[in-house]
């Protein structure tokens, strides 16, 4: 899913040739993150909050997912791509300072409703499939965010509005 998201980011959003090294780095992260999230994290949420698909339980899972896992996932993605690809400009700490806050805001706008739908409406055996579809969209944005300056993109759009 991450490789497809990166392909879409490069070809459709950035309108550039496909950088296969970048695609492999993003795919490697996606593989690692999918194992951790799909196997351990979602199982942890089921054990802690139970498998009832009530609104209350779904809200608790969504809030925990967004407050605990999402910040780790967003920062890990940025660090992974920055270090493995050998990005130098901007330096990693500056990249995180500039782009982590707006990227987290987009994450919350995207994943809060997507996670609530997943936990409240999608049966557990189908949740991985649903999440994969959502991840293609999210990985497209994350690939763009980790390879561009998000704060400049958002500032440019605000001044053009």
Description of the molecule:
This protein has one domain. Helix 1 packs across helix 2 (20-49), helix 2 packs antiparallel against helix 3 (55-84) and helix 4 runs antiparallel to helix 5 (124-147). The chain has 161 residues and is mainly α. It is built from six helices and no strands. It has helices spanning 2-13, 20-49, 55-84, 92-121, 124-147, 150-160. The termini are far apart. The protein is globular and about 45 Å long.
The low-confidence parts are: none
Broad shape: globular
**Total of helices:** 6
Radius of gyration: 16 Å
How much of the sequence is in beta strands? under 5%
Major sheet attributes: none
Q: Based on the structure, what is the oligomeric state of the protein chains?
A: single chain
Order of helices and strands: HHHHHH
* Helical proportion, percent range: over 70%
What structural class do the secondary elements suggest?
A: mainly alpha
Describe this protein with a few key phrases.
85% helix, single chain, globular, 0% strand, 161 residues, mainly alpha, 6 helices
């Amino acid at each position: 899913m991450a490789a497809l998201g990166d392909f879409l980011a490069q070809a459709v959003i950035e309108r550039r040739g496909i950088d296969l090294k970048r695609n492999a780095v993003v795919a490697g992260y996606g593989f690692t993150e999918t194992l951790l999230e799909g196997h351990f994290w979602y199982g942890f949420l089921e054990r802690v909050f139970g498998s009832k698909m009530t609104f209350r339980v779904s809200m608790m899972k969504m809030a925990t997912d967004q407050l605990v896992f999402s910040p780790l996932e967003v920062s890990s993605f940025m660090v992974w791509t920055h270090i493995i690809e050998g990005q130098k400009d901007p330096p990693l700490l500056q990249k995180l300072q500039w782009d982590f806050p707006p990227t987290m805001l987009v994450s919350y706008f995207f994943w809060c409703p997507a996670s609530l739908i997943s936990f409240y409406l999608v049966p557990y055996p189908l949740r991985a499939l649903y999440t994969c579809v959502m991840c293609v969209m999210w990985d497209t944005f994350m690939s763009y965010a980790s390879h561009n300056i998000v704060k400049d993109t958002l500032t440019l759009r605000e001044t053009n509005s």
